[in-house]
Amino acid sequence: MTELTRRSLFGLAATGSVGLAACTTLPGASQAYDGEVSFDHGVASGDPLSNRVIVWTRVTPKSGSGPIPVSYEVTDAAGAIVSSGLLSAEASHDFCVKADAAGLSPATAYSYKFTALTRAGEVTSPTGRTRTTAASGTAPVRFGVVSCSNWQFGLFNAYAALAAEDNLDAIIHLGDYFYEYGTDGYGGEVALAIGRPHEPTHECVTLADYRARHAQYKTDPNLQAAHAAVPWICTWDDHESANNSYRTGAANHNPEKGEGNWSDRKMAAVQAYFEWQPIRDMEAGRISTAVWRSFDFGDVATVCALESRLTGRSEDISWFTALSGATGEEDLAQRAAITMGQVNDPDRTMLGVDQEAWLDSELKRSVDDGKTWQVLANQVVMAKVALPKMQDTLTPEQIAAQDNSYVQQMIGFSALGLPSNLDAWDGFPAARERLYDSVTRAGARLVTLAGDTHTAWANTLHDAAGKRCGVEFGCTSITSPGSGSAVKDVPELGKLFSDANKDVDWHDPFGHGYILVTLSADSATAEFRKVSDILSPDWTLETASVWKSEPKEGGVTCLKPA
Fold first, then answer.
1. DSSP secondary structure string for all residues of 55-67
2. How distant is the alpha carbon of residue 282 from its chain centre?
3. Rounded to whole angstroms, how far apart are CA atoms 12 and 519?
4. Sequence-ordered list of residues with C-beta below 8 angstroms from that of 486, at least 6 positions apart, any chain
């Protein structure tokens, strides 16, 4: 067996992208770390394939200096080591390490752990569980689907519930894994009341800021438990960088306030994400915003994880900005018409040209390979959604109860029947039609997963001509507040949305939780789970609703309650 040189151990291995499964020779005592270390942030695995999976941890140096030698091992159910190697935790990667553990068997559960070598002895991480995907076959696949976990708004009880779910093949995180705001921003008042403020206390702008925020979130025991339970497939939304981010900027990026160049901030956020998440490097030694990738789960499904923020998304268009200061109904209507002209620009893209072409190819490949379902791990809602006409559907007492200025503005706006969320696919209608064209040409059975809104959705998707193109399951948040907390005293709000929109079968704007999505050769089923409380460690779990679609030749059936 070839012994690693010091340069290869502490150089190439530090990227976490070099295959080291065959290397098991531990460094000598002279190379052992000269200080104390711990594993404060748990372990994680991700991006599972049929023969390999990413394993991740972060070593926390308590004292000493220099690189920290770290070994990892993956064991099977009998305890035999099936993959192992050496890594190096270094300051250049914030002492995070990850390995692409290879040589694994399909559809198999494994355990894994890390060991840091110090001069005082070995220090071992917690043990995680992971599993590979099936190479073939029609065994059902079961995912937990989550998004929008804001530390400041409450406890991560939903992660604890998810960690306890049986028979999960993976957890799919659709973005807003953390929030970039400081303690004076979104959620700050709640954080002050419950003693859960962000670290650092200011908004994240620099690489050091983003690293510190990742580190804080991964100290949460419930999040650690969910990471240690099963592999994750992660994709970011906007808050991993800045609110309402797009390719060339963000609504929450302000150079005039000393926040610097957007490109620098964007790439700092991306670097920290690659360091701190169990995501496979797109190219060894190089970080990139082009993180779209796909995963096959036997013959049941292909999951395409999309990137819809930092690579190809056109500039943000916001109703809040467009309608701010409107002086009456006529002015409101004129501003809305101008804004919709911008929204309908055929050159607007959500994914960008390269990713659109990749997705078109992946949908065809998946169908040609005989996969039953083509699943999009997508950040934002794809369904067409307009506000219910509040002046007609709310009582005078309900209208008078609205004390949120934006909600008050939306009451008049809702009479126009226009899409309400331009940060979702409704703000990119031409791009959505191109995606639906790809689905139709491929004969795909589309299941779209969505996050972002902090509310739950069961949607049947239609193109501009009214043709059914797929179904969508939108998850609520881990902690971030939904529209039900902003619109006061309207308990029937979800039904008002479903009544007002052809695409919306069911909507729940209240509560926090996740979706369990089960895919089989016969059906796609979504169970919407909710925790009873996020402000107390005492909580219960309920299933709010269950919806199902079935495959048909070249498409899917409408969603029905199950």
1. EEEE-EESS--S-
2. 17
3. 39
4. 404, 406, 407
Whole-number Å distance between alpha carbons of 358 and 349: 14
Q: Which residue has the tokens 């089989």?
A: 520
Q: Which residues pair with 68 in a beta bridge?
A: 89
Host H or E run for residue 7: helix 6-10
Residues of the chain with pLDDT under 70: 1-30
The residue type found at 184 is D
Please give the pLDDT value at position 417. Answer: 94
Render 482-522 in DSSP notation, one character per residue. Answer: -HHHHSTT-TTHHHHHHHH-TTEEEEE-S-EEEEEEEE-SS
pLDDT for the residue 4: 29
Which CATH code, of 3.40.630.30, 1.10.3720.10, 3.40.50.10490, 3.60.21.70, is assigned to 141-314+349-385+421-561? Answer: 3.60.21.70
Secondary structure string (H, E, C) spanning 174-236: CCCCCCCCCCCCCCHHHHHHHCCCCCCCCCCCCHHHHHHHHHHHCCCHHHHHHHHHCCEEECC
User: DSSP label at 538?
Assistant: -
Q: Judge contact between 111 and 75, C-beta under 8 A.
A: yes
The pLDDT of residue 30: 58
Predicted pLDDT of residue 358: 98
Q: What is the reported pLDDT for 552?
A: 93
pTM over 0.90, yes/no: yes
- Terminal alpha carbon distance of the chain: 56
pLDDT of amino acid 28: 53
Domain boundaries, the chain: 6-131, 141-314+349-385+421-561
Domain 6-131 fold is Immunoglobulin-like (2.60.40)
pLDDT at 2: 30
Q: CB–CB of 297/519 below 8 Å?
A: yes
Q: With b meaning 16 or more CB within 10 Å and e meaning fewer, what string describes 504-521?
A: bbbbbbbbbbbbbbbbbe
Q: What are 263's two structure tokens? A: 């490109």
pLDDT of residue 406: 86
Element housing 119 (H / E) = none
- Give the closest residue to 237 by CA, choosing from 116, 100, 377: 377
CA distances from 240 to 103, 178, 422 (A): 33, 6, 19
Peptide bond into 429 cis (omega under 30): no
